[in-house]
């Protein structure tokens, strides 16, 4: 008879791990969905709230900036208030602010409620990840991160589809009001199953936090406003860049010299965690930039309605969900680094397939490449999240997960800004090159001019066709760029260690409900 498998003790012991996991993930999915679900409703909000195109973007910007600033606060707040009080307050605040967003009558009201929503939502994902790590033994980290990753990665993928359906079936307010029943259910479940934790009256390093918050806020504003003001041709962007770099530099120097800094930089000495941050930055770039490119490609160039766009993109979410569940079960049997490399190769392959898109294709290639990309991302995220935290000390987990979440979000911002900038630049370049190849003096062109009744008519038709083809080529250029970014990141895998010995549970954190 085989000896039973030795399983280390978790850092935190709870009576109802399954129900607590369900409660945590319900809250997490609600929060993650909100990062993309409102995007498709912006045109409808714009008319309802009497806002201009630039002004309505603050509905997204206010949420992103508020969440980015609040995310690093998670560790200090968890110590000061306790995880139970913090997550219950965050879920309650997020639910209330969602309802207020759905009832907003003006743009200032909407922006104010979105700021509150972003602050509350910022702490939910790091708390969820750190709690799942604490209530599971090290040997089960892979399965725990598979469950966590399914919500984190699938949420943004299905968000636009759900948002589009809710907007078309009801109205834009339903995008926010749908959070009310979900939030109430998550709050009730967490109140029943979330255990209490020890409170640590840690001093608040206001100066350190201020420098970090200023740096993050300016970086987010740079990424969000860059395309609007033509990037570094605007003084505004240079100011954001300078203040962001200066704030980060002062923050690092302060943390290295202060007696009780806002963040203990010792956690970055963990090689797996530091390498994991680089990787999750790349994952953020490739995941969310693809999500930003496909809807306008399908709707503007190929004429897909919103609902059909969501259906065509659905296999991406299915692939991610399936791969995360499978990888969670395979984590103990294979070196996680092998799965990360396999996932990156599959993701790069799917992006290569996307470089073959054309305006005459059917849905098969779109859905196949999407499913493969989802499969690859799932194979990367689960083992990466496991390796990043497998060797880090338990006392660093909340701060570490908050920075992990922050870097992923910054990566997504960089990715979206990067592909948007490349798209605009290549659209202009491709339009100029294609336009030069049009010969109006050719016999065929002269015959076409006569058939449509004049030079102005044919020029308008030609410009439309050239613009369409130039845009398609620009999208393909973006897909090639993302493929290269994915391939270049593969060598970083070899800086990861496969794992370490299980940490002994911290008796001050061990508890039972």
From TrEMBL:
Keywords: Cell membrane, Membrane, Transmembrane, Transmembrane helix, Transport. It is a multi-pass membrane protein. The keyword RNA-binding does not apply. PROSITE patterns: MFS (PS50850), SUGAR_TRANSPORT_1 (PS00216). Residues 20-501 form the Major facilitator superfamily (MFS) profile domain. It is found in: Cell membrane. InterPro entries: EmrB-like, MFS, MFS_dom, MFS_trans_sf, Sugar_transporter_CS. The chain crosses the membrane at residues 58-78, 85-105, 111-133, 145-166, 172-194, 206-223, 235-256, 277-298, 310-331, 338-359, 371-392, 413-432, 479-496. It comes from the Bacteria. Pfam families: MFS_1. The keyword Transport applies. Belongs to the major facilitator superfamily. EmrB family. PANTHER family: MAJOR FACILITATOR SUPERFAMILY MULTIDRUG TRANSPORTER MFSC. This is DHA2 family efflux MFS transporter permease subunit.
